[in-house]
Predict the 3D structure of the following.
Amino acid sequence: MSNFGTMSDGIWTTVNNVEECTYKIKNVANVLEIIAVAETGDVESGALWLMRDNLMELTDKIELYAQDLLDCRRELMEEMNKPKTSMAVPKKGKKK
């Protein structure tokens, strides 16, 4: 496998791992939201809501970075699939 293929596979694996982490962080944020609703009379402010909002903002940013990685992977795949151009030396013609 070429270096491009190895890098592409590595990027794909990394993005999948990052997406799994963001999913888990969002689950924690959702639990904080449930606790915040149950524990406070205010359904929009407080420490639990702040933590929840910060976690959600963080996952949004992480997802943007993951998308950037996927864009890089796409570029690598395009580069890898480009036809190879030959740098052959032209044949010398016969002298008359």
Remarks:
- The chain has two helices and no strands.
